[in-house]
Specification:
Length: about 425
């Protein structure tokens, strides 16, 4: 008798290939069931392995998660060592709050109170364009080389004044004259003093960002005595020297001609003007030409405007003939009616990537000057109120996104406290009570 798996083969149901005598389980059905059980067991083994892999050792808990075997945190929390559930941890937390955090909060509150007392109220600045100031430290007298220069003490006073006003930047005006005794051009502004002033501003908030080169020689003398071709040859050489000296300083922009329509609007000299602009560009500066009013600027050849990075106009609108009867409203209306507004809009539409700048504007501190601000009018009716009224219209009307900057000419006298308040509000965002 043959036995298979403890079952008598005599009981084998040969017909259905089954260890059962009935049809309850066939051999193939049994094999299928055993396969399913085997698969289940294999999956369970994999799940156990995966679960085991996720377990964190005591060393990992202590070294990585900073939890010891007693479930206490052993790391650092906000500067407190071992902030555990123990009395030691709780006490450390309380000590830090009392000894460090609360005094620091009091210090911050005291600081805020002091700032509030000094500044009264702080807000964003109102005037959108940068406001700068033309500083000229050398003046030309005639054509024989006679000129005057400010002392470093006077220059330092100018810088401090600009800084106190809260101005955004300074433009240094560099005057070029002619010495008939040597038949040569010279720089009336001491360039060593300019470099000294640039360095001096490293200790101030305001910086010297622009250089504006002036020709201090009359058109008649240039045409009839020196002759323009000779002058331009000499002038390009001296502009090159100036640009080389200003390299690697805070100067970003250089204008190479000021109010020289008889040169830059004459096609005869377009190539010379382009060469002047390229001298500045080759030395790493943004360049332009400063024009005597919008009409002059409109006459510039397209190639000159195309090469320029700055499009600049000197602008002095007539405000009023009413002298001391002039009001804020008079100034605002005068600025609104001036052609400068259309010029800004037109030039920005034509040259959206260029800087639009009013490179000169201002008024002397007397009522007569409001009738002709471009003239250096000084009369007996001295009043800083005239400057204040002029500024009121300027800040109100020229507060435009399309205008990059405004460079003031003439003095700004802060003996009139309203002028300082005006600058505080427009440029610093301070409202003085």
């Amino acid at each position: 008798m043959f036995i298979y798996g403890g079952i008598l083969m005599s009981t084998w149901n040969k017909k259905n290939f089954s260890i059962y005598t009935s049809d309850e389980k066939t051999a193939l059905g049994l094999i299928e069931e055993l396969g399913e059980q085997t698969n289940y067991n294999t999956e369970e083994i994999e799940r156990v392995k995966e679960s085991d892999n996720k377990k964190v050792s005591h060393d990992e808990m202590n070294n990585i998660y900073k939890i010891d075997k007693n479930a206490d945190f052993t790391g650092s929390w906000h500067g407190i060592k071992k902030p555990t559930a123990s009395q030691e941890g709780l006490q450390a937390t309380v000590d830090k709050i009392v000894e460090e955090d609360i005094p620091y909060i009091n210090e911050q509150m005291d600081t805020k109170a002091n700032e509030s007392e000094v500044n009264k109220r702080l807000r964003f600045r109102n005037f959108k364009p940068k406001f700068g100031y033309n500083c000229y430290w050398g003046e030309i007298w005639g054509t024989d080389g006679t000129h005057t220069q400010k002392t470093r003490n006077e220059i330092s006073n100018d810088l401090n004044h600009c800084n106190e006003l809260g101005l955004d930047e300074i433009t240094v005006d560099i005057h070029v004259g002619y010495n008939s005794n040597t038949s040569s051009l010279y720089v009336a502004t001491n360039m060593n003093d300019v470099l000294w002033a640039i360095e001096r501003c490293s200790n101030l908030k305001v910086k010297i960002k622009n250089a504006k080169i002036h020709v201090g020689i009359s058109e008649d003398y240039l045409r009839n005595t020196i002759t323009l071709p000779v002058f331009l040859t000499l002038y390009k050489a001296i502009v090159s020297e100036i640009c080389v000296q200003l390299k690697n300083t805070t100067i970003e922009n250089v204008t190479v001609l000021n109010e020289c329509a008889f040169i830059d609007t004459d096609p005869t000299y377009t190539t010379d003007v382009l060469e002047l602009l390229n001298i500045g560009k080759n030395n790493g500066f943004k360049v332009g030409i400063t024009c005597a009013g919008v009409e002059h600027n409109y006459k510039l050849p397209g190639v000159i405007l195309g090469l320029s990075d700055l499009i600049c106009v000197n602008c002095y609108p007539t405000i009023s003939f009413k002298k001391d009867k002039t009001t804020y409203e008079d100034s605002i209306n005068a600025w609104k009616q001036h052609e400068i507004n259309l010029w800004i809009k037109t030039r920005k539409e034509q040259y959206p990537d260029k800087k639009i700048i009013i490179s000169e504007t201002g008024v002397t501190n007397c009522w007569e000057a409001l009738l002709s601000p471009a003239s250096n009018v000084i009369d007996s009716t001295i009043s800083n109120k005239a400057t204040e009224i002029y500024l009121k219209g300027l800040f109100e009307v020229l507060n435009k996104d399309d205008l990059t900057g405004v460079w003031w000419w003439f003095g700004i006298f802060t003996e009139e406290t309203n002028i300082q308040k005006m600058f505080d509000y427009e440029l610093r965002g301070l409202i003085n009570e």
